[in-house]
Amino acid sequence: MSEPNQALPDHNLDDYRLLRVIGRGGQAVVYEAEQISLRRRVALKILQITADSDVVSSRVLARETDALVRAKHPGIAEIYGTGLTPDGRPYLAMELIEGMTLAAHIRAHPVEGGLPRIELRERLRMMMQICEAVSCAHQRGVIHCDLKPQNIMVARDPVVSSDALVKVLDFGLARVAARAGQTVSLDKGHLRGTIAYMSPEQSAGTADTADVRTDVYALGVILYELMTGALPYALSEASITQAVLIIQETHPAPLSKFWTEHRLPVDLEIIIGKALEKDPGRRYQSALDLGEDLRRFMDGQPILARAPSTTYQLRKLAGRHKVPLLMGSALLVLFVVFAIYTSVQNARLNRESRRANEEASTAETVSDFLVGMFDVNKPSISMGREVTARELLEDGSRKIESLQVSPPVKARLLYTIGTAFASLGSHERADRAFESALAIQRSSTSPPSLAAAATIEQMAIVARSARKITRADSLLQEALSIRLRLAGSGSVEVAESLHDLGGLRLVQKRFAEAESLLAMAADIRQSKLGPLNIDLAKTLSNLSMANSGLDRDAKAESLLLRSIDIKRATVGEDHIDTAKGYHNLAQRYSDDKRFTEAELYFRKAIAIKERALGDRHPDLGTSLNGLALVYHQTGRHAAAESLYLRNIAIEEHNRGVEDPSLAPALSNLAKLRKLQGRPEEAIALWERCVVLSETGGSSEDTRLSSWLMELDAVYRDTRRFREEEATLVKAIAVQARLFGIDSERVRKTQTMLEAAREAR
Fold it and tell me: What does the alpha-carbon distance between residue 379 and residue 712 come to, in Å, rounded to a whole number?
C-alpha cells in the first residue's frame, strides 16, 4: 500500500528512478521504481537504518538475495539486482507484482459459515501454487521462515481471468543450506518472523535448528486462515510470552466452529491438522507432501494423512464415481458392494490389461526397430565413414516398407520417422512419411481416429514450416474437427489443435483470431496440465506474440516472461524450448529498438541451438538472422554480413537453392549490400528474390511488390532507367492484383514510372 507521507529520497539509485512508496516493514521500505536501462517497473527494497540494526539488516538482505537467486520459480518473486544507496544502505531490486496480498484477499472475501464448493476449490488451487513455490525453494536449500499472507501476492492470470496466480515474497529470513538436506541454525534468542505463523520450535527462539517442516507449519496456518478467515490461535490480546505458550501448548480452534452453513470436508480438517502438528516429525515432511495431499483431496482420492481403511477407500471411490452407497450399520451391503466393485474392477482391469499389452507390444516393436536403425556398423550403411542422422532415417524408411508388422505398428513407425525428419528440417521427407502413416490409419479405422488426427496435425506443422499456408490451414481444421468429436472441447488434444491453429494465424497476421484461439488453448492446458507445464509455456509464448500484434505491449511482455520462467523451471536453461523463448524475447526487444537486450537474448538462443541442434538447423538460422538484423541496425555491418551469409547457407542446405522461402534472407543481405555501397550485388540479390517468388508460385505475395520497389530504387540510384522502367511495369501489375488498379499504391508507382520514362 502506498504511503504518501513518506518522503522519497531526493536522488535516483544507480539505474533506478524511485516513483512511490508501496510498503513498509520492520526492516525496510519498499518503493515502486523504474529500471531506466530496461524501461521496466520494479520493486525496490531499501533497508531501514537504526542504531543497532545495520549489521543484522545487511545480513538479512544478503540472505534474501542469495535465496531469491537460487530459488527461481514462477511462484517466487524474481530478483533483478542489489546495491548500496549513497549513504550506505543496502537495497534490493525485484519483480513488481501487480495485485493484492493474500491477507487483503482474505479480508476482501470473508468466510461466512464456510465456503461454497467453487470458492473452496479456488482457494485450494491457490494454496497448491504456494506449496509448489515453497517446495521449489526447499529443493534448492532455501527455508523461508516468515511465510504469511502478507508475504504472498495474489494476481489474476492474464490468460485465464478466473484463475488466481500467487507469488511468494520476502525471503528476508530465509536460511540457505550449504548442502541438500542440511538443517540450518536459527538466530538464537531472537524471534524473527511473525509469531502467529511460527511453528512451536521456531517460536521458542532458542531452538538449535529449523528445517523445511518449519515452513510446512506456516503453510498449515495459512491454509487454516484461507478456510476460516481466522487464525488457529487467539493471539491478538496475548503478550509475546503468552503467545509462545499458546502456540506450544494449546490446540487450534476446530474448523467446524467457522463452518456453520456449509458441510466441512473431514479430509480437509485432517490435512490442516497434520500440517499444524506441534511435533515436526508428525507433520507433513515437505511442502510437496502437503500440496500432494491437497491435490488428492481435490481429485476425490484417498488422502495420505489418514489410514486407508476399506470403508474409507470405498467412500472415496463412491464420491469420485457418483455411486450411491449406503454406509452405516448394514455391513452386509458394504461387503456386497465391495464384491461388485471388485468384479467390475477386475473386468475393467482385464480390458485395460489387454489394451496395455497391445500398446506395450507396439512400443516394444517400435523401440526394437529404432535401436536397429542405429546399428551403424553394417557395411551397407556406413561404408567405413561417419553416418548422418538423415542417412539412418532414409535407411529406416526403406526397411519399414518391407516390415511384416500390424498396420497400427507400421503407422506408428512411419509417424516416428516423420517426426524425426521434421526435427531435422527435412520437410519433404517428413511429409511423405506422415502421408504413408495416415493412409494406413485411414484404411484401418472408420471414422478417423485420434491417432490419425495426430498425424494430420504433424503434416500441418510441416506444411507451415515449408510456407504452404493454405495446406496447413486445411489440415489443422481437419485435425481439430476430429479431436472435438472424439476427445471433447476441453481435452488436451483439442488444446494442441487450438495452439497450432493460433500459431498459423500469427503467421497470417490475423492477430485477433490468434489471440482468441491461443487464449482457449492456454485455458485448457492450465486447467488440465497445471501452471508449470512446457506445453502451457509454448502457448503463452504464442499468445504473447498475438498480443504484441494487437499493440498490447505490456501484456505481451508479461506473457512472454512468464513463458520463459515456466520453461526454465520445467525443462531447464539449456533446453531448445527455452532457447525459443529467448529468441522470441530477443525479437520483441529488437522490434522495440532495445538492441542491447535483443543482442543478449539472441546470443543465448544461438548458443543453446548450436549445442542442441547442430550448425545447420533452420531454427538456428532464424536466430542468426535475428542477430544479424540487430547488427545491421546498429551499424556493425561486417558482423551482420557474416551472419546473413551463414543463415543463407543454412536455408540453401535445408530447402535447396530454388526454394521461394530463401527470398527474405536474400533481401536482408541485399539491403546491407546497398548500404555498403555495393549496388551491383544488391541488384543481383533482389533480382534473385523476384525470380524465386515468380517461379515458386508466390507472385501474389506482398513481399514481391516490396522487392520490386527495392530493385527500382537501386536502378534509379545508379541511373539505369531502362531497367527501372521494366521493373516498375512489373510492380504495377503485381500491385494491381494485390491492392486493386485504383489503389493509392498503384497511383504512386505509375507516377514513378512516368518519371523514369522522362529521365530515360
Answer: 56
Q: Which of these, 106, 93, 107, 100, lies nearest to 43 by C-alpha position?
A: 93
Q: What is the pLDDT of residue 68?
A: 58
Name residues of the chain where pLDDT drops below 50.
1-5, 50-53, 158-162, 173-193, 206-207, 307-314, 316-317, 320-345, 348-349, 351-353, 355-387
- What pLDDT score was predicted for residue 352? 47
Euclidean distance between CA atoms 682 and 710, whole angstroms: 9
Contacts of 445 (CB under 8 A, 6+ apart): 451, 452
CATH superfamily of 100-306: Transferase(Phosphotransferase) domain 1 (1.10.510.10)
Q: What homologous superfamily is domain 16-95 in, according to CATH?
A: Phosphorylase Kinase; domain 1 (3.30.200.20)
Q: What is the CA radius of gyration of the chain?
A: 32
Q: What CA–CA distance (Å, rounded) separates 164 from 591?
A: 31
Contact 609, 621 (CB under 8 A): no
For residue 576 the three cell numbers come to 531448445
The predicted pLDDT at position 156 comes to 64
Cell of residue 697, nine digits: 508460385
pTM metric for this prediction: 0.47
Neighbours of 168 (CB within 10 A): 24
CA distances (Å), 236 to each of 22, 243, 246, 682, 756, in order?
A: 26, 9, 12, 78, 88
Which DSSP string corresponds to 648-671? HHHHHHHH-TT-GGGHHHHHHHHH
Q: Which long-range contacts (CB under 8 A, 24 or more apart) does 545-548 make?
A: 545/506, 545/514, 545/584, 546/502, 546/505, 546/506, 546/511, 546/514, 546/515, 546/518, 547/515, 548/588, 548/591
Per-residue three-class SS string for 218-248:
HHHHHHHHHHHCCCCCCCCCCCHHHHHHHHH
pLDDT at 57: 52
Q: Other C-beta atoms within 10 Å of 310: how many?
A: 10
- Smallest CA-to-CA distance from 165 within 662, 565, 715, 619 is with 565
649 CB neighbour count, 10 Å cutoff:
15
> Cis before residue 447, ω within 30 degrees of 0?
yes
Evaluate whether 418 touches 434 at the Cβ level (below 8 Å): yes
- The Cβ of residue 273 has, within 10 Å, a number of other Cβ atoms equal to 20
Question: What residue ranges do the domains of the chain occupy?
Answer: 16-95, 100-306
Please report the pLDDT score of residue 345 as a whole number. 47
Q: How far apart are CA 262 and CA 115, in angstroms?
A: 6
**What does DSSP assign to residue 32?**
E
C-alpha to C-alpha distances, 611 to 42, 602, 605, nearest whole angstrom = 34, 14, 10
Cell 463452518 -> residue: 259
Please, are residues 143 and 37 in contact by the beta-carbon 8 Å criterion?
no
Number of other CB atoms surrounding residue 348 within 10 Å: 10
CB neighbour list of residue 738: distance below 8 Å, 6 or more residues apart: 700, 702, 705
Write out the three cell numbers for 175. 536460511
Cα angle, residue 430 at apex, residues 429 and 433 outer, rounded to 5°: 90
Q: According to the model, what pLDDT value does residue 257 have? A: 84
CA distance 213 to 205: 16
Long-range contacts of 712-721 (CB under 8 A, 24+ apart): 712/752, 714/674, 714/679, 714/682, 714/683, 714/686, 715/683, 716/756, 717/679, 718/679, 718/683, 719/759, 721/756, 721/757, 721/759, 721/760
Q: Name residues whose C-beta falls within 8 Å of residue 470's C-beta, 6 or more positions apart in sequence.
A: none
Q: How many CB atoms lie within 10 A of CB 293?
A: 24
- CA dist 707 and 731 (Å) reads 9
What pLDDT was estimated at residue 558? 86
